[in-house]
Every structure is written in C-alpha cells, then in structure tokens.
Predict the 3D structure of the following.
Amino acid sequence: MPKRSRGPVAAVAAAALAVVLVGGAPGAAYAYADSATGTINTSGTALSVRSGPGTGYAAWRTVSDGSTVTLLCQTTGQSVTGTYGTTTLWDLLSNGGMVSDAYVHTGSDGQVVNSCAYVGDEPSSKTNPRSANGAIDWAFQRYRSTAYENLCLAFVAQAYGWGGSGWNTAEIGGDWESSNGYLKTSGIPPRGALVWYHNSVGSGHVAISLGEGKVIGTSVGGGVGVAGYLDHGSYRGWSVAYLPAAW
C-alpha cells in the first residue's frame, strides 16, 4: 500500500524533483525537515520500538496501531516488508527508539526528515569492540536496570565492549577528552557520541547519545533510561567514543 497516491501532474513534479535530489536517499546532500509526524499502521498489531535499525536489535517497548509518532531523523538499516511495502528506511522516534518506515504513514514513500547523524570513528589505536549501534543496543537491553547507579563510566565503557574505562570518574574522563582536543561543545551530540557532564559532587557523569538530542545512560529516574541531552546537570560537551585507558 503506497503512502500517497499521485496524479499525473504530481507524478511529473515528483520526477523532476527526483532529478534534483538524486534519489533523495538518506545521506544525500539535501535538507529535509528537522522533524515530522507519522501514524503507525500495522492493521492492529502493536509495533516493536527497537534500539537500532533492524529487527535483531532489542525491542524495549511497543507502540500501538494508530498511534501518532514524531520522527526526528531517518537512517538506512535492515530491509523490512510491511504495510507500505518494502524499505530499508528506519525512523528514530522522539522517545529515542527506532521503527521501520514500512509501518509509518508519513504522506511520502521516501525520506521526510533529515538523515540521522552518527559520531565519527575513534582512533584506530584503540578501536572499540562494539559499534555505536551495538553499544546502544547493549544499553537498551539494560533499560530500567538499577544495577549501574553511580557507575555511569563503567556503563558506557561496557556498552562499547570493554571491561572498564580505566578512569576513576567521569569527571576525569571528561577532563581527558577536553585536554586532548576531543571534547566538542557545539552542535547536538551525534548518535554514538559520549556525552559528558559535571555534577555537584565532582565525579561527573557520562551517557551515550542516541542522536537528535536524546541520550541513554544511568541516573534517569533511578535507573538506565532515556533523557534529553541537556536534562542532566552541567553539560560539558560530547566526544567520539574514545576510551584510551579502557581494558
């Protein structure tokens, strides 16, 4: 079922636009909307919201058929066949999870919001065992866990596949990122970035960016959860997921 029917005039206009956009695939040099509204259409079944762009990623919640959702960005991932045909397009929702665009009515068969921005690679001298999506998936598998309270630095290090960070506190880690030129203070933290904070007790805090202003980490309502990147106390900035002392 197509998301939008096109008459002859609309079809001609769409064809002309396609030439300009060179297909409009995620990552193309074209500015889409910053956000958009969609409607879940599964013909009755609740749709799993996943930690990444594929059905193999953790399903940490569901959204009911007919629900209105807000799309923050879109990315390519696993091919899925659903209500609106087959697509590799996945939508990041305002709660930080992803759903296949095959089940979301947006008024278009293609991309409608900006492509999700991913953080750059860490130095090859200390490559993380897990990718950004793998780390985020690990974190979502522990959603609402209270086992990592006061262990935010260990949480992000283990999410990226390490046994530990090698630093005693997130404040020390943030200081290192800053003094070595890795800490960025402008722009919204891209997906997979480490997001650093000061806190009142001097130990600091760190979380993992989901992109588009969302993070997952400890100390969200007393456990692992999703928050806005400015919801924690004193925001310092973000860095690539580089943990040089990790083990």
